[in-house]
């Protein structure tokens, strides 16, 4: 029971402990006016753009996979999937009901089934063993994940035969054609075979490592990695009071303050939003900081008129190409090689991200 004359802390529930949700929770923890709960399907936060490095160097994941309790000491953390939102309450698959004054949804994309950090580290060990024991490797998908994995393997295991198959007409279709061509040339120089305009039918694979493409081409590989986009983590919302706030792509429609369409006390941040910009980690972190500020304003008595508005990020992209090189595109200017690699490729911003969470780099 609150003491006389002392306002009761407002209850904030954050669903999703990814790039956006983790930073939001860390920021909320600094403010004494909030009583927050994090609901996440896993016990850890992962620096997602470091995943490909962890596959070729599993020890790298010891810094990039972080238990929520490491950076949110003493916080209320529930390891479960959320499965309902009604009447200012969130329900979980384990049968709990958590009340809120403000709700923030940050479920991003569906990802790994691993629940604990040890499980995730073992998954990277298994991926690494698969790479090391294979002479030929098939990568399906030519977006940033597929390109970065192909580059990591080509740099760390230069004798491996790597084939990358992409259904699009060019790699990294979110950047301009010049940048795509530069990356294609870089991979070709590293002896990565790139097949464009085709997909792979995984149901046609056989025990001898034979795969068929959509054009009937046969590919031989000892193993494969599927690097296409994961589904948006919003399917569960279709059965909640937020079902009418989803657009045709399954993203939550938000205003400039990140409030979900039709609700005054529900926010959404990160990849699950319909904000018209590239879905990138550093932009999701900006979403988190805007919502943290807006929650503070509301809890301090604002009527919402002075809330911070978000301006979509400029079209900037940086794609790591192994340990030392990268492609950087800012507006229409594209650069590739060691200079942009100095910005990202060595540590993949892991130290910076850990520092944001109050941890040693």
Automatic annotation (TrEMBL):
The keyword Oxidoreductase applies. GO terms for cellular component: cytoplasm. GO terms for molecular function: electron-transferring-flavoprotein dehydrogenase activity; flavin adenine dinucleotide binding. It comes from the Eukaryota. Keywords: FAD, Flavoprotein, Oxidoreductase. Coiled coil: none annotated. Residues 11-282 form the FAD/NAD(P)-binding domain. InterPro entries: FAD/NAD-bd_sf, FAD/NAD-binding_dom. Belongs to the FAD-dependent oxidoreductase family. Putative FAD-dependent oxidoreductase. This is FAD/NAD(P)-binding domain-containing protein.
């Amino acid at each position: 029971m609150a003491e006389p004359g002392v306002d009761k802390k407002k209850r904030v529930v954050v669903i999703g402990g990814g790039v956006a949700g983790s930073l939001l929770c860390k920021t909320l923890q600094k403010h004494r006016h909030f009583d927050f709960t994090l609901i996440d399907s896993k016990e850890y936060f992962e620096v997602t753009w470091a995943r490909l490095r962890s596959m070729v160097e599993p020890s790298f994941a010891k810094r990039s996979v972080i238990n929520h309790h490491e950076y949110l000491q003493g916080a209320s953390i529930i390891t479960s999937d959320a499965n309902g939102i009604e009447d200012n309450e969130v329900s979980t698959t384990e049968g709990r009901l958590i009340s809120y004054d403000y709700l923030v949804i940050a479920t991003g994309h569906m990802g790994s089934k691993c629940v604990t950090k040890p499980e995730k580290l073992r998954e990277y060990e298994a991926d690494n063993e698969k790479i090391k024991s294979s002479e030929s490797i098939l990568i399906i998908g030519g977006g940033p994940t597929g390109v970065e994995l192909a580059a990591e393997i080509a740099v760390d295991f230069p004798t491996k035969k790597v084939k990358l198959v992409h259904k699009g007409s060019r790699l990294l279709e979110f950047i301009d054609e010049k940048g795509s061509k530069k990356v294609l040339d870089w991979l070709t120089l590293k002896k990565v075979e790139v097949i464009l305009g085709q997909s792979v039918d995984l149901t046609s694979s056989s025990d001898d490592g034979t795969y068929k493409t959509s054009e009937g081409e046969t590919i031989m590989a000892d193993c494969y990695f599927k690097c296409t986009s994961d589904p948006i983590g919003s399917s569960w919302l279709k059965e909640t009071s937020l079902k009418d706030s989803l657009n045709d792509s399954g993203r939550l429609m938000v205003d400039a303050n990140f409030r979900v369409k039709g609700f005054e006390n529900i926010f959404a941040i990160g990849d699950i939003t319909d904000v018209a910009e590239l879905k990138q980690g550093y932009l999701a972190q900006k979403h988190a900081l805007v919502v943290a500020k807006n929650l503070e304003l509301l809890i301090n008595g604002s009527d919402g008129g002075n809330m911070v508005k978000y301006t979509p990020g400029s079209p900037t992209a940086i794609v790591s190409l192994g340990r030392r090189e990268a492609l950087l595109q800012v507006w229409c200017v594209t650069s590739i090689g060691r200079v942009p690699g100095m910005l990202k490729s060595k540590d993949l911003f892991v130290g910076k991200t850990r520092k944001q969470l109050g941890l040693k780099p």
